UniProtKB/TrEMBL annotation:
<dbReference type="Pfam" id="PF02548">
    <property type="entry name" value="Pantoate_transf"/>
</dbReference>
<dbReference type="GO" id="GO:0005737">
    <property type="term" value="C:cytoplasm"/>
</dbReference>
<dbReference type="InterPro" id="IPR040442">
    <property type="entry name" value="Pyrv_kinase-like_dom_sf"/>
</dbReference>
<dbReference type="InterPro" id="IPR015813">
    <property type="entry name" value="Pyrv/PenolPyrv_kinase-like_dom"/>
</dbReference>
<dbReference type="InterPro" id="IPR003700">
    <property type="entry name" value="Pantoate_hydroxy_MeTrfase"/>
</dbReference>
<dbReference type="GO" id="GO:0015940">
    <property type="term" value="P:pantothenate biosynthetic process"/>
</dbReference>
<protein>
    <recommendedName>
        <fullName>3-methyl-2-oxobutanoate hydroxymethyltransferase</fullName>
        <ecNumber>2.1.2.11</ecNumber>
    </recommendedName>
</protein>
<comment type="pathway">
    <text>Cofactor biosynthesis; (R)-pantothenate biosynthesis; (R)-pantoate from 3-methyl-2-oxobutanoate: step 1/2.</text>
</comment>
<comment type="similarity">
    <text>Belongs to the PanB family.</text>
</comment>
<feature type="binding site">
    <location>
        <position position="84"/>
    </location>
    <ligand>
        <name>3-methyl-2-oxobutanoate</name>
    </ligand>
</feature>
<keyword id="KW-0479">Metal-binding</keyword>
<keyword id="KW-0566">Pantothenate biosynthesis</keyword>
<comment type="subunit">
    <text>Homodecamer; pentamer of dimers.</text>
</comment>
<keyword id="KW-0963">Cytoplasm</keyword>
<feature type="binding site">
    <location>
        <position position="84"/>
    </location>
    <ligand>
        <name>Mg(2+)</name>
    </ligand>
</feature>
<feature type="active site" description="Proton acceptor">
    <location>
        <position position="182"/>
    </location>
</feature>
<keyword id="KW-0808">Transferase</keyword>
Length: 265
């Protein structure tokens, strides 16, 4: 069985099918999601917060993206793997974007890349697509701009809503195969979805988008502390890991692990 391609994603939109996307940052977790049939995985620069211990996505480097994207590709057989272009790897212009995206395609083997920004990233998306690299756009809240925009719902008010619609059109006109809508009112996400022929992938954007994406550590209950209201926790992996670590520690201290079964003679 072959990998899912951007053509399959386009076909799903034509059939009106909804689909899920999860982030993944390592081969083992990605292999689990592949077994579960998740068709698209995003090696998000959210790895900065989730796996690398940074406060934001801003410090993530292209080297880090390439290394973890390669691991996710190796861990999967079926999913389309999308690699995020990190902050500073495409803002200088289309040529820098092409150089960065080419690394993720050649070194890591991703099937597509994602970058943030609507109108402001039109040129970058356009050159990548013309060069044969499928692009997923990302508008609304764009976490790489946290220092300028903070983390708040985007597109509220008539002017901001019109800008979001223009950004969505710009991403589509540049040739992107899909676009992430992050943290925008559900009604506006519905309007954007209705105005495009490419699929929208929502996160904190309500029910009307063609696809939904969650950061997997939020989704499985691994993220420490408070998670955003728009996410949903489907498991308690943090509790499971903590209980396993405590049980192991107790048995070592008590001398009940290892047993005869675990011992060679
Ligand atoms: O990095 C990421 O996880 C993302 C998704 C939230 C869309 O960009
Ligand atoms: Na991201």
């Amino acid at each position: 069985s072959r990998r899912i391609t951007v053509h399959d994603i386009t076909a799903a939109k034509e059939r009106g099918e909804r689909w899920p996307m999860l982030t993944a940052y390592d081969a083992m977790t990605a292999s689990v999601f592949d077994e579960a049939g998740i068709p698209v995985m995003l090696v998000g620069d959210s790895m900065g917060n989730c796996h690398l211990g940074y406060e934001t996505t801003v410090p993530v480097t292209l080297d880090e993206m390439a290394m973890l994207s390669a691991a996710v590709v190796r861990g999967t057989k079926r999913a389309l793997i999308v690699g995020d272009l990190p902050f500073g790897s495409y803002q200088e212009g289309p040529v820098q974007a092409l150089r960065s995206a080419t690394r993720l395609v050649k070194e890591a083997g991703v099937g597509a890349v994602k970058l943030e920004g609507g109108e402001r990233s039109h040129e970058q998306i356009s050159l990548l697509v013309r060069s044969g690299i499928p692009v997923m756009g990302h508008i609304g809240l764009t976490p790489q701009s946290v220092n300028a925009m903070g983390y708040r719902v985007q597109g509220r008010g008539e002017e901001a809503a019109q800008q979001l619609l223009r950004d969505a059109k710009a991403v589509q006109d540049a040739g992107a195969f899909a676009v992430v809508l992050e943290l925008v009112p559900g009604e506006l996400a519905a309007e954007v979805t209705g105005s495009l022929h490419i699929p929208t992938v929502g996160i904190g954007a309500g029910q009307a988008t063609d696809a939904q994406v969650l950061v997997y550590t939020d989704m499985v209950g691994l993220t420490p502390g408070r998670v955003p209201r728009f996410t949903k926790q489907y498991a308690d992996v943090r509790g499971t890991l903590r209980d396993a670590a405590r049980a192991f520690a107790d048995e070592v201290v008590e001398g009940t692990f290892p047993q005869e079964d675990h011992t060679f003679h």
